[in-house]
Give the backbone structure.
Amino acid sequence: MPTVHKDGPLMVIAGAGSGKTRVLTYRIAYLMQQGVDSFSILALTFTNKAAKEMKSRIATIVGESEAKNLWMGTFHSVFARILRSEADRLGYPSNFTIYDTQDSDRLIASIIKEMKLDKDVYKYKQIRSRISSFKNSLITVRAYMSHPELIEADREARRPQMGEIYKEYVDRCFKAGAMDFDDLLLKTNELLNRFPDVLAKYQNRFRYILVDEYQDTNQSQYLIVKALADRFQNVCVVGDDAQSIYAFRGANIENILSFQNDYPNATTYRLEQNYRSSQNIVKAANSVIKHNQNKLDKNVWTENAVGEKIIVHRSPTDGEEGRYVASSIFEYKMQHQLHHRDFAVLYRTNAQSRAMEDALRKRDIPYRVFGGLSFYQRKEIKDVLAYLRLIVNSKDEESLKRVINYPARGIGQTTIDKLVVKAKEHDCSIFEILERIEELGMGINSGTRTKLANFSMMIKSFQVLNETSNAFEIADAVTKKTGLVQALKKDGTPEAVTRIENIEELLNGIKDFIDGQRELADMTGSLTEFLEDVALISDLDQGSENDDRVSLMSIHMAKGLEFPYVFIVGMEEDLFPSAMSMNTRSELEEERRLFYVALTRAEKQAILTYTQSRYRWGKLIDAEPSRFLSEMDEAYLDVQTPDDSYQFQPLLNTDIFDTPDPNRVRFKKPPLKKAAPKAKSVPPRKNLKPIANTTNTNDQTNVEGLSEGIKVKHSRFGTGIIVAIEGNGNDLKAEIDFGTAGVKKLLLRFAKLQIIK
DNA sequence: TGCACCGATGTTTTT
DNA sequence: CATCGGTGCA
């Protein structure tokens, strides 16, 4: 058993539902029983909630007082803590601000604007994600500048200024005393690399390191673990390659696939028995994941009951889909005497929660939405937090820009622009400029100068207060004295009222936080502590397990959770798998793993739903069933279709490519579109091509009819003309000129093209 | 300088 | 559809 393995590297490949958390819990408890000091154990989990739960489970085994000393948490929160205590080494203040994605976006957007670049070419979101992937791969500005191929790639993408933006962004963050999420990992690497004494200190401290969800670590995280474990090699990683779903933020599945290479004397255990789900669910999930090529061999099985078949249900629209889910929940609950908390509704995109919420609300079913626009991302909350952040760290540029004129106090954009320029000129923060405003003059009229002085004075008075008060007292003062709440009260609209309520909720939350912190010996309940907590917390971490509500969340958020009854909604092409993730095999495989994760959340029953058309951007769009539906072995399914028109493509489809490939994606377009149910409000759909006529393999016609010069239609790019066709078998590609949408090279396996005559 | 309106534009997924 | 940024007016 893994639990008796004490020293040396260890990898546990744990299939879905095989009790990963249990392994970690028992291993830690075991180590402690063997006399390992709890201070020398570092456990990195995927969510703070997982850490908290594990800690309390360990506490029941080894006792509260010992468990308390364990270092447990997410990579981000653990290393943020370490970075605070070592910040001066890197030239950062220990109270550095943590920028969230939105802060980064704003900063990047303003840099692009200041550099007078075309914002249609330099899209801030793209820039941000590129910078993020640089950081996650430890490509610093300096590394970027010395890698001609990176520079060349950006030049080819017609963004020659990428490097400049990157540099400016990093500089500005540094000057603002701010780190973004990626910095928390990158700077930790820098810290461990540049300062051997620091490295030695933490290597000696963390003699035992455990990493959960290892398959989702990125390069930066991987290197941190490697560095820390280098001395004692007591590293235990737990994961499941089949559940790697974070490639988009740099997770590298190779980290787990090549653990044996990194630690040649590593012991590997495999846990393949699933204790969570019914046989039908386990088998169906296996039948899906086997379509992936890149994976470790693993055979998950269970001794659990066969259970109910997986229900596949079609609805005309997303509204009806919601109604179906709501009434199913109602019925299951009645029939089987269940609680609301036994149900989860999972979706690919957060936007899908709305239709579900509406339906559940109508039936008075209590629910809770996780993720999406979380509480701490709401505007009014971010406003209050921005004041608080500015108080703690007056160099924080993004916070300052956010609140300097909110509520309106007559400080306009032109003034702010002048301040930004001056700050850059003097190589200092905007707040410092405010202090020297009289001395510098700088063409700001005296009225505005007074306003600026007042603002600066107000912040300073808060800073003084901060020296003697706790987080709650300051937050309370901020909401009152800044006029923030007053402005909302004056507004009087219903939204403003909810905003005030939210601010009150925030204050209550801060109070709770302080009470919680007081219980911990080395915590004081200061504003700094609170802000750090807020920056890295996610909805999931917030308690309230005990309230009886249906959970609504994205599949990503559901990782590691389990529910007796799971609805997976929106099983449609272009939604799940996402239209953004179908261009390469690896993207598609990640989508498939995501589906695998979703399915294996269910203990007793999984219900998959899809619609024939759904509202997207306020428009009703035709939808077709997800390919994942037909990838599941039919034996485990109960396909409920109101008018019986759901049909699977024959499993042994004619192989239209020369290369037989078991993993080949079948284009299926079940001919369900005819016989549109007479349901009201479903507008007639415009099928551009008489699909029904082309017997059972319309993909075949698709590919065969294609040649140069043919006019085609693509669901995203519109109509275009084929310029060239190249490759063969699975690699058959067409280069298509879509006019304004540009020339694209598409893999014909994935591109759903329709010929236009 | 500030506010109100308008059109454009974009949606994966998260620490 | 919802947010954002830009424009035009007071």
Q: What stands out?
A: Chain A is about 45% helix and 15% strand. Chain A has a mean pLDDT of 83. The longest strand of chain A covers residues 602-611. The CA atoms of residues 318 and 614 of chain A lie 5 Å apart.
